[in-house]
Amino acid sequence: MCRPARRTYSAPMTGSANEHDTARSTTPIDLSRETPRGTARDQGQPAGTDPIDAVDAPSSLSGLNNPGAVKDLSKESESYTHGHHESVLRSHRRRTAANSAAFLLPHLLSDMTLLDVGCGPGTVTVDLAERLTQGSVVGVDASDDVLESARGLADAHGTRNISFEHANAYELPFEDDSFDVVFAHQLLQHLSDPVAALREMKRVAKPGGFVAVRDADYEAMAWYPESAELTEWNMLYHEVTHTYGFEPDAGRRLASWVRDAGFDPATIEPGASVWCYATPDDRTWWGGLWAERCTQSNFAVQAKDSALADDVALEQLAQGWREWAAAPDGWFAVLNGEVLARA
Ligand SMILES: C[S@@+](CC[C@H](N)C(=O)[O-])C[C@H]1O[C@@H](n2cnc3c(N)ncnc32)[C@H](O)[C@@H]1O
Predict the structure, then answer these.
(1) Which of 128, 130, 146 is nearest to 184 (CA)?
(2) pLDDT digit string (tens) for 270-307?
(3) C-beta of 187 in contact with ligand 1 (< 6 A)
């Protein structure tokens, strides 16, 4: 399939925060491409055979080895798309049990044991532990740095019924039937085999215990004012994550993955909820952190390593985020899929 050139241009920035009622056609960003809908997985193909991967490399990058092809990553070496740059942690640290696990809270009893898989900096994990006053919580993550941050948070809160361990979601270091609740927030979108991870979560949950997962759906994100740069950012995000074998539109697939992992369909409760950023403070925070993530996080590294964007293009996307944040009528919604099931 013939697709336009990748984002490897160096035209000057144009447009301003006041020009936001139409997409900025004066920028060099090419909006003629289809928004990527559906992935290789949907079409019964292995990830990486999606037409999205079949573009020609620009001549300036033709020396790269097979740019755009799916990376050959074992589950042990999967590279978390965002990494843990400060701009990423700034995003995760806003998360609480109330704004990220509301679908689970009515089911918690104070003496339950809970495992949080891919706990990141642990704000949701600590919050959950503080609700399980007679119970206990374990947070696991594949990153030691972020676990240190989570331990520091628990110490700062004086939360005693919590511990953090290094672990791979595919091989949880726990006996079968260990926890009343096994939770994963914004993890499955970053795994090449989310169904295998769900099977592992089911294994360590007690029979009849809860497995609860929640993930964003990038294709379903919505914003105002229109922004060519944000549209391009969303397309690039899909391309980068598909290149690495991950599914950015995880939210809509959670119930399907949970079924595939062998949960009793009668116990599966699918749902959705939204984060919305529209106040001046929220716009400054969300737009500012994404501006930084476009140029400084692992996402930027992976976009460049995959020859999908260069520094100039990424800076354009960052500028688009800053302009969105500055727009007084700016609004951004993140649709999250969520599923509660019984092991
Ligand atoms: C988007 S963050 C979510 C963090 C946290 N749950 C939250 O919502 O704030 C995803 C986390 O999953 C971790 N992760 C990615 N792959 C993993 C794996 N295979 N096993 C364990 N953790 C993993 C990353 O290190 C990262 O901290």
Answers:
(1) 128
(2) 999 999 999 999 999 999 999 999 999 999 999 999 99
(3) yes
Write down the pLDDT at residue 96. 96
| Terminal-residue alpha carbon distance, the chain | 43
Beta bridge partners of 339: 213, 270
Where would I find the beta strands (DSSP E) of 217-268? 222-224
Distance, in Å, from the CA atom of 307 to the CA atom of 65, rounded to the nearest integer, reads 10
Token pair, residue 314, equals 């990424």
Say whether pLDDT at 68 is over 90: no
Tokens 């290094």, located at residue = 166
Q: Is 287 in the pocket of ligand 1 (CB under 6 A)?
A: no
List domains and CATH numbers for the chain. 51-342 (3.40.50.150)
pTM assigned to the model: 0.82
> What is the CA angle 71-77-80, rounded to 5?
80
**Residue 214 CB–ligand 1 contact under 6 Å:** no
